[in-house]
Input
Amino acid sequence: MVRLWIDLIEYHRSLDPDYPPLPNLRETLRAEARRGVDMEHCEVFVALSSSDGAADGLVGFLFAELEPRPAGVPVPPTGQIHELWVDPERRRAGVGRALVDEADAFFAARGSARVSVRVEEPNEAGREFWRRLGFRDRARIMERIR
Ligand SMILES: CC(C)(COP(=O)(O)OP(=O)(O)OC[C@H]1O[C@@H](n2cnc3c(N)ncnc32)[C@H](O)[C@@H]1OP(=O)(O)O)[C@@H](O)C(=O)NCCC(=O)NCCS
Output
């Protein structure tokens, strides 16, 4: 999974040279992947291929986290999709949609009616994918880099 996650980060870096640097990349991603598997409000979904995928069979992954509610706030939690990557060789075959469906079921089972994802501005293909799945723009993140 860390292997695919690094591909995802390199993809984002190729789109945007200001994509934030991550020190100790492998260790950080390994720890984050473990958090995704261990924590009750997180889940990691993977897509496996038994045929022509990579040696480990992993061709995609999604990292999902149910956003904790501030105590006493009577709104359902939001499901956050932090990461989604499908191996370029396996795209346009329904793998991304299947991973999102799994995350959706995970969130729904925990009372969440809203799923949210942050998409980087230059990732036009990514934005189109989310639109096809029924996602709509709701907010804009504005940044200034020193
Ligand atoms: C975005 C991504 C996950 C899509 O995965 P995928 O397995 O190819 O997607 P699917 O085959 O399940 O496609 C689902 C729908 O999105 C559409 N879609 C997928 N990629 C698209 C693209 N590049 N441009 C336009 N539409 C696209 C498909 O046509 C399909 O619509 P349909 O069901 O109406 O035909 C994959 O391209 C990827 O890993 N991209 C790089 C990383 C990335 O952008 N991740 C999301 C970051 S927020």
